[in-house]
Amino acid sequence: MNGNKVNILMVDDQPAKLLSYEAILAPLGEKMLKAASAREALERLLKQEVAVVLVDVNMPEMNGFDLADMIRQHPRFESTPIIFISAVHMTDVDRLRGYERGAVDYISVPVIPEVLRAKVRVFVELYRKSRQLELLNRDLEARVAERTRQLQQSADLLELATEAVIVRDWIGRVEFWNSGAESTYGWTREEMIGQDLHEMLKTRFPVSNKHVRASLLASGTWGGNLVQTTRDGREITVATRKALQQDHLGLPRAVLEIGRDITAQLQTEEALRKSERLAAMGRMAGIIAHEINNPLAAITNAFFLLRDHPSLDQQARWYAQIADHELSRVARITSQTLGFYKQPQHTVPVKIDCVLDEILELEERTLQFTNVRLEKDYKTQVTISAFPDELKQVFLNLVGNALEAMQTGGRLRVSARDCKDEKTKRRGVRVSFCDTGSGIRPEHAKHLFEPFFSTKSEKGTGLGLWISKGIVTKYEGTISVRSLRISGGHVTCFSVFIPATDSGLQQDGPGGGNGIPEVNSQRLQAASLGDDSL
To answer: Which domain, by its residues, includes 481?
Structure first.
């Protein structure tokens, strides 16, 4: 095909006829290809595209019917129109034979120029339109392929996004659910497609759903924090942005929602606020303890002189001794409060039993109020190098948790023993806190030391045990928990192992030999849970 011209192939063994056909068809303005034999015609067809073929039926080497049959066998020309031209009368049988071989029309000699031109023009225009359609189809296919590639790239980017990207229709049924949504909520794409989004997620809006829809219709967007439920039943807070998609008539069709789980961020911010409040309270307590320390010393000295004064009778002297005893206790609490406030710059030698006694004395009132019986069992002479306030923080947290689990009374055993850790073979002190409280559910036990995990509902931040584990790990120690159900109740035991410094190891300890017995932590916990203890 040359430019917009198409090729017309004329096949006849007589050159004069070929010239006459060329003259008749010249007004069409197309390119004429001439072939004097069937062989030459086939060679032309293999080299060039042809819109229509004019074939003489009677040719010496190969007649028109056989040539048409060979043309039709080639895949490129199985639909190429063939017009037979015959100088002899053709019967209906001859015509049927021609149609079976692929003929689309017949022209008898003498040829009427107008008829030949009209018939060829029809097939030329059909060929030209077919080629144009093919070009349009190829262009359309290329555009579709490019658009598909772009959409696939967009889909791949959405899949890589860590945020939950969701498309739902205006009614609420999910149409798209990316991998970020799968990891955020727990449901797979197959499970969510076609489901009502906010019914599945049990969404709670900060405003009414009617207000959200009105905002989408008015401005096309909406943003806010939603409280939603994951597949495993957890409630999470999701920062969500919504965008309305409209159809060609401007009616709402779908809503694009992009959400990011900010639960941990909000918990961290709340924990920081509480930490700041607690730090401020600690500083205030330190200031108060410092300020009352001097007058407290004067009052204590006065009561020391007063209790043995000769002017007092026996009953007054007894009351003075009680007051002196309570003042001594207040003095110790003041000293301990200052100890929390005034942190040393470097680690100092620490006796675990002394730290435990200070902590338990602070909790004495709570023990009495909750009717919890305290049992202490100290068998340790090892000294460790640590920051005392950090150990107090760990032990206070464990004791506080135990007391919260025994609101209606119970027993708390605190034990400290010199031992050797089974895994590291290091010597140190193992401190155990065993209580007869409400126990710990098995599914909660594996999450206890994770940040923000709490079994106290709204009251806890979920940071106490996580911070405690961090402190213990800093000293290359370990902290573990075990909770059992026995005799209709529960026994929970937290065990803390803290390695001792070389200088803190005693040569003559309660276990003989090197002074520190090798204590199996599980046997120690089991012993704590026996009939003689808890």
So the answer is: 346-528
